[in-house]
Amino acid sequence: MTVPSNLLEGKKILLGVTGSIAAYKSLELLRLFIKAGAEVRVVMTPAAKKFVQPLSFEALSRNRVLDDTNESWADDFNHIKIAQWADLFVIAPVTANTIAKLANGIADTMLTQCALAYSGVKIIAPSANTNMIQNPIIQAAQKMLAIANYEIVATQTKELACQVTGDGAMAEPQEIFWESARQLLKNDFWQDRRVIVTGGGTVEKLDDVRTISNRSSGKMASALATALFLRGADVNLIATRFESNLPSSIHTIDVESSAEMNDYLTDSIRIAKKGKLSKPSLIHDAPIALIQKEPFLFMAAAVSDYIPTHPQDGKLKKELLGESWTITMKQNSDLIASCNKEGIKTVAFKAETDSSVATDNAKKLLINKGVNAVCLNIIDNSNPFGSETNRIDFITADTTVVLAKSDKLTISLKLLDEAASL
Fold it and tell me: How many CB atoms lie within 10 A of CB 73?
């Protein structure tokens, strides 16, 4: 999925780096932030400078690196002013030692002083040996931070620097980037709202080795799910195909046939209508509230209109089929028309190849299938299946809004702005 160069334009990020072997990955994280349009400043601990020199971060960020040796009160190059400057504070990697310090309010390095001075949400990506990260004291410290305005990007299991395979490796820079972008881009309307997205072309069985499908790539559904994640929604993506760099916090269900998609869609709609529990509070007697926001359903999947009447077990041999093979098809059930849309806002996607009738056909969908809006996508040589860009007409009963051609993540974010008014 293409990340637009203006996704984080105007955002200011303070990147903290501590003394872990994973510090070299912070250079890649910094590059991702810069490439997405953010302005980034870096603060390092003395131990971090043993792994990566400040010059590397300065070359990529085009800003001086703040550390324990160069704080200045003659300008904004100090832990108070830089904390006021930042829209987000990300510490990646954060060692077990620094986790313990943060949880106990210890400020003995420039980085931990910045953390105490920064009042907003702080994102941390731990990195440590398995035994260290699983130490009960560090586990307790992480739980304390999780309810004290810190968001923790979970570690991963892989071969560590100590040549032991286990939990403790820092999350991939792309994953930290997504979590950081979510904090910067979420809004009140979509935050904690449960949303279902369907995507990709369904795959219908002819026999155990042959299938019939369509050319839908699933890229638009992946981009839409990512945009919803960035806006703060609780996203469930049911699809036949996925982009490789999706945020891992998006709940994905990999399906093939339309019948399988329908089964998971039915369950997902039922669950979405139950609402979502809020996070625990630092106030011990504060109850965990049920967040009741009307859920949304975006039907971006290309569901087969016809399916084989008699799918076969095993592999059909061409010697038995003969010179020609006639496949009998039957009309498939309509997932959009038949799903339970009561209490859930529904947006359908419609692909058309004939622009002269496309709008009329899309408007008929509003009535015939009982949806709240239709995203019309006209397929032609300039806008083919599987491209990295798209153009959409967002059609409701009263209005049509043209979303100009752009990358699919950008157009998805614009689409969500329109959908919020349904």
Answer: 9
